[in-house]
Amino acid sequence: MFPKRAEELKAGGSIYWVIQGSVQARQVIKDLVAVKTKSGTKCRIVLEPSLIPVRPVARKPFQGWRYLKPEEAPPDLDHEAAEDDLPIRAELAELGLL
């Protein structure tokens, strides 16, 4: 399905990745392209290749579009902190302590 708020997503939206029970990274959405297939129109999401580490937040996996309000989105981690602290941060988030 094509998202209803496509223009909003193309103007700075991100896909947030749930890994082992917590949101741990995001990728910036570069474009959304309508692709016609035998079964109808689909949405191709074109992403920046790099992953941006975020503060881990416990979250169950889900399918489909979910829109996060800016105040609900986990903040980015700086690169050095992300590499050094990611395992412990993920464990603390799983325990509900972050």
Could you describe the 3D structure shown?
With 98 residues, this protein is an alpha+beta fold. The chain has one domain (6-94). The chain is built from 2 helices and 4 strands. The protein has helices at residues 6-10, 79-94, and strands at residues 14-19, 22-37, 40-47, 52-58. Strands 1, 2, 3 and 4 form a 4-stranded antiparallel beta sheet that branches. The radius of gyration is 15 Å and the shape is elongated. The protein starts with 5 loop residues before the first helix and ends with a helix.
Please outline the helices and strands:
Layout lengths: L5 H5 L3 E6 L2 E16 L2 E8 L4 E7 L20 H16 L4
Antiparallel strand pairs: 1-2, 2-3, 2-4
**Quaternary assembly:** single chain
- Tell me the structural class: alpha+beta
How would you state the average pLDDT, rounded?
83
The main pleated sheet reads as: 4 strands, antiparallel
Shape descriptor reads elongated
Low-confidence stretches: none
Q: How large a portion of the residues is in β-strands, by DSSP E?
A: 35-45%
N-to-C SSE string, H for helix and E for strand: HEEEEH
How many whole angstroms does the radius of gyration measure? 15 Å
The termini sit apart by: 33 Å
- The total count of helices amounts to 2
Query: What is the number of independent domains?
Result: 1
Helix % is 10-25%
The count of strands amounts to 4
